[in-house]
Amino acid sequence: MTRPLVIKEMTNDQTEHRSSDEAREAAVRILHNVLKEAVRRRVESIHGATQSDAPALALLYSGGLDSAVLAALTDLVYPSHQPIELLTVAFANPRKLASARSKCVTEGHQAESSATFDTPDRLTARRGVQELREINPQRQWRLIEINVEAQEYEDHKQEVMHLMYPSSSVMDLSIAAALYFASRGVGYLPSDGSESPTAPSAARTRYISHARVLLSGLGADEQLGGYSRHKAAWQRGGEAELAKEVRRHVKESDLAI
């Protein structure tokens, strides 16, 4: 078993004597190298991934800072011939669906059920995968849209609650449910290779992921400043205030574990 990476091991005593700009750039390189090495160790251990063309790896993908960074790092260390599957989970909002159906009945046309899954994370995921394709157009990026109907969620809720830990808040349940349905890997893949929000259901093909490893960026937002509180800290006091907020957030997360 390999021991955990320690950032301190990748620094040297000269860092503190550099200028602030040099020290900042050095810190960025150190963090990048640590994260990249952590991802490399995990993906290289997937049995048979380098010999097969079948996708062996998938990422829980919201398009946010955490999953976007994880996807970009995975691209650097994962075999180039292998597709990378990005699983984006969205839960139906019964109130939104009822409103859409009511509007469609009034206007005399059918409701487009896929629109009820156009959550902020889903829309961000669609934009994010386009950016990943611009970064590496040679990589086959597969955005798999997993839509969970309200009744389907209720049918599996007790099982999720039985499996999840920690289990002390609504947020715990939300995260666990996303992981649960993502791990099933049952969703839709756009037939034309696009992720247009206006694409009709007929343009989407049922898809089942057979990936054996699912990567998640949980915890990365705390370290990389991916929350609105970090943006507010930057606007309030610049780099110094942002650094203080990141340290505070990471400490809070450690205490919660």
What does this structure look like?
This protein has 257 residues and is an alpha/beta fold. The chain folds into two domains: 39-104 and 111-218, no CATH class; 222-256, no CATH class. Helices cover 51% and strands 13% of the residues. It has helices at residues 20-43, 65-77, 94-107, 120-135, 150-163, 170-184, 220-224, 228-256, and strands at residues 57-60, 84-91, 141-148, 186-190, 204-208, 213-215. The strands form two sheets. It has a four-stranded parallel β-sheet. The protein has a two-stranded antiparallel ribbon with strand order 4-5. Strand 1, helix 2 and strand 2 (84-91) form a beta-alpha-beta unit. It is globular. The relative contact order is 0.13.
Run of helices and strands: HEHEHHEHHEEEHH
Structural class: alpha/beta
Distance N terminus to C terminus? 23 Å
Parts with pLDDT < 50 across at least 5 consecutive residues? 9-15
Mean pLDDT: 82
> What global shape is seen?
globular
Whole-number total of structural domains: 2
Side by side, the strands of the main sheet go 3-2-1-6
Estimate percent helicity: 40-55%
Note the beta-strand portion: 5-15%
C-alpha Rg (nearest Å): 21 Å
Topology record:
Elements: H1 20-43, E1 57-60, H2 65-77, E2 84-91, H3 94-107, H4 120-135, E3 141-148, H5 150-163, H6 170-184, E4 186-190, E5 204-208, E6 213-215, H7 220-224, H8 228-256
Parallel strand pairs: 1-2, 1-6, 2-3
Antiparallel strand pairs: 4-5
Helix pairs in contact: 1-2, 5-6
